Amino acid sequence: MADIVSLKTAIADLVHDRDVVALEGFTHLIPHAAGHELIRQGRRELALIRMTPDIVYDQLIGAGCARRLTFSWGGNPGVGSLHRLRDAVENAWPSTLELEEHSHAGMAAAYAAGASNLPFGVLRGYVDTDLVGHTSVRRITCPFTGEDLAAVPAHRPDVGVIHAQQADKGGNVQLWGILGVQKEAILASARSIVTVEEIVEELEPRPGSVVIPSWAIDAIAVAAGGAHPSYAHAYYERDNEFYLQWDAISRDRDQFAAWIERHVLGTSDVVEYHRSLERADIAV
Amino acid sequence: MSVVSTYTADEMMAVEAARRLQDGDVCFVGIGLPSLAANLARATHAPGCVLIYESGTIDAKPNELPLSIGDGELAETALTVVSVPEMFGYWLQGGRIDVGFLGAAQIDRRGNLNSTVIGDYQHPKVRLPGGGGAPEIATSVRDVFVMLRHSPRTFVERLDFITSVGDRVRLVVSDLGTLEPGEDGELALTAVHPGVEPESAREATGWDLRVSDDLGVTNPPSDRELGALRSLRTKGMVE
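Structure tokens for the assembled complex are given below, as produced in the milestone run.
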């Protein structure tokens, strides 16, 4: 059964320095509030996994929380580069960042394998690309047809973190809209945290939703607005303006540090974070 | 509506790419020019064109062009939304996609693409976002369409990194013209856009670009195409 706790407690109890941590979300329902709490609690040397590291990973990397990143696309969607990620890779600032780079198909297969308790995922992938030299892909032969295929080691994070629209009082979680790889990330992980927009009496079935039972989750924390600047389908829209502004905020080390200091370290939770952003004339 | 007489290079690219899509084609679409082209095709000659975005939205019919491949607009207008492992497993690897659009930072004469790094991988001059879906899109769809602006830094003799292979690249649309592979797989200039000399395309290419014997000239965008394109852009394109 999932414990319904504060996000502060969930992160304090379940995420440790040097853990392998996957905060997942494919442009939708990105667990920003949980990422901010990792920064506030000063987690260090995390090995981060994410298909599409975007702003929250830029923040974690720039704030010095990460030593390693396993990913397939790292950018500010629709805008451009992640400047903190680039600064870490190109200039080792604030510290070196080890990369393990995959394709989306490989990452998805690795999560599905992890959720299935298999040692590796199989796909027709990585053919003739230079990625092979920079990742842990191996070639295997199909025992039935002899076909040459790619094997990717399963993702087995210590902690999986996602954001969902709702949980019920018993801790069952429902998310809907763009589903990404969130279900797989939770089921592949040894421990799991789900932040939600709200806790409802009873989950109302939604078309195409994913429901994760309470007993497959360790901790649930309410974080209304916890996906900002990404969105929560049926709750609030994507803050496209913030994504555009992040390009300028993150380009400069000092400006980035000031932003983190003011809106993340200077706030105690997601409610204060939103108030802090509202008070700023611009997000900077 | 007033007569549309001038157009930008980007508009020419989007219009020409859209024309190459057939009604009923199932298209794997990225953000930016590919999304613009595929939505234009759907709004003009190919209303039955099926748009799939890698976030899992199948048969999305966005009324506004999205900023990201996962905008809510795509999920709300889609026939169905599937998870990312299902998208890449059942739909892409399953061989159900006709056309996949790719962009990149570099392309070589065989249509191989680099979207990973400029410079050495360990000590890159520029760390790019990375391949994302490209490695398997390039080997799983029937036809790959590439949209790239011409420059000797982009059309290069040798890639800094091979992110995806060019075996299925059937068309490259640039701001100067179109390139298509010959029988040996090497890309040749098959058409120039109106007002472009083939020599400018050769100069903007980092290898000795072949020019097709029956080099054509792209038809300029029609008023109908430009009107449809601009109504798409003005509905919500964030520039």
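Chain B touches chain A through 50 residues (CB under 8 Å). Chain B has one domain: 9-234. Further analysis is deferred to the final report.
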